[in-house]
Design brief:
The chain has 4 helices and 4 strands, in the order H-E-E-E-H-E-H-H. Helix 2 packs antiparallel against helix 3. With about 180 residues, the protein is an alpha+beta fold. The protein is elongated, with a radius of gyration of 26 Å. The protein starts with a helix and ends in a 6-residue tail after the last helix. Helix content is about 30%, strand content about 15%.
Length: about 180
């Protein structure tokens, strides 16, 4: 009977420790350095087990970690102003999904931020049909040109392409700008 009692305690301890929530995944080693505000060229690169972020704001980090849009993140003005270089290495190979899970833990440790999820009403624009319906007409001889000419600086819409293709072409030509 004495032999079973220690075994029972070990099983009880194992069951209790299995029920406690595991710690958030974290990087083994990380470096976070403030950089001058003149450093505007941000870059985020990941390799198995390594995350390198250059000249990023805290807002950029949160957007990357949570795959969020800028309007989904709010906070004091400095989260969009102050810039940092972050180099973090996991204990072993980690894919981008795991790196995204580790980054909030690093941000919480280093910046002492507290994250809160809340519902927010945001402005939305809708495109709706006019009361009389669409005003399309059947293509005539004028509409049969080989390609449409651009009225401005943007690319022309070619036959067989739709507006989504035009937007993709136009956005590929532009490089993102920082404010």
């Amino acid at each position: 009977m004495r032999f079973l009692q220690p075994l029972w305690l070990a099983v009880a301890y194992a069951a209790a420790s299995a029920q406690t929530p595991s710690a958030s995944p974290s990087f083994e080693v990380a470096s976070v350095r403030a950089v001058g505000s003149d450093q505007r060229q941000k870059s985020i690169t990941d390799a198995p087990g390594t995350l390198t972020m250059r000249s990023v704001t805290l807002r950029d980090c949160l957007q990357w970690a949570y795959e969020a849009e800028p309007a989904q993140i709010s906070g004091p003005p400095w989260i969009a102003d102050s810039r940092f270089d972050i180099i973090a290495k996991a204990a072993g190979p980690a894919d981008i999904r795991q790196l995204r899970l580790m980054l909030p833990t690093l941000l919480t440790e280093r910046f002492r931020i507290k994250l809160r999820h809340e519902q927010k009403d945001l402005p939305v624009c809708f495109m709706v049909l006019a009361p009389g319906g669409p005003k399309f007409h059947e293509p005539g001889p004028k509409d049969q040109s080989k390609s449409l000419q651009s009225a401005g600086d943007g690319p022309a819409l070619e036959p067989g392409k739709d507006v989504v293709d035009l937007i993709a072409i136009d956005s590929a030509d532009k490089t993102p700008t920082e404010n």
